[in-house]
Amino acid sequence: MPSFRLCLAILGTVLLFLLSACGTTKVQPGYYRVQSGDTLTQIARKQGASVSDLVRWNQLSNANAIEVGQVLRVDPPAGQARASAPSKAKSRSQASSKPAASSTARRRTAPPGAISLVWPAQGKVTRGYDGSGSNGIVISNASGTPVVAAAPGTVAYSGSGLRGYGHLVIVKHNASFLSIYAHNSKLLVKEGQRVSQGQKIAEMGNSDSKQVGLYFELRYDGQAVDPAGSLPPK
């Protein structure tokens, strides 16, 4: 029989595929999905890493043998440091007189009026979306605070098999939009279940997180987008 660790690895791979199948070409923070025409050198340059970093972090036997759709780690694993970034990446960084501009350039928004959301939980927004280090927002409140579906849809995933997300719910709203609700203390819906906007789907918690809070992410055509433009003012 396969070992427990192997089973967990297989489960994690399946869940990553699920996120991809829900209309996304972008994987969880710290990873990158290989696109057509990519080379490891290009990916390293874009991510501010070195080719040797990517080879080491992904245990690649051949730097030239990457495949379209392959998911690569582009941030160092715990306990490992990032090697010196390529000189071209350094030059770009040094030449930029406004570091915030690159972060702003990565900020994505959904088309105006494409989807109308309600707040997925009551509380204080303690981390916002920036399109780089944070692809979603964190809403903080007491453990057990109701978490609701931000828009109507179908539950694509409900479980705790994806490391880093804790007890997680993914709701697919239509062909273009899905939303992610992570770190819950309790899940109240099942996969395939139809949910209405504002319906309670979970309770806030700190599963796989150091602090109590809901991590909420909105994705449009496979890309994490700033939900602020689709949420009502607080």
TrEMBL record:
GO CC list: cell division site; cell outer membrane
Instruction: Report the top EC class in one word.
Output: hydrolase
Q: Tell me which PANTHER family the record gives.
A: MUREIN HYDROLASE ACTIVATOR NLPD, PEPTIDASE-RELATED
Q: Which Pfam families match?
A: LysM, Peptidase_M23
Asked if the record carries the keyword S-adenosyl-L-methionine, the reply is: no
Task: Please give the name of this protein.
Answer: M23 family metallopeptidase
Q: Which GO terms describe its molecular function?
A: metalloendopeptidase activity
Q: Which gene encodes it?
A: nlpD_2
Keyword list, A-Z? Hydrolase
Q: Does the keyword Hydrolase apply?
A: yes
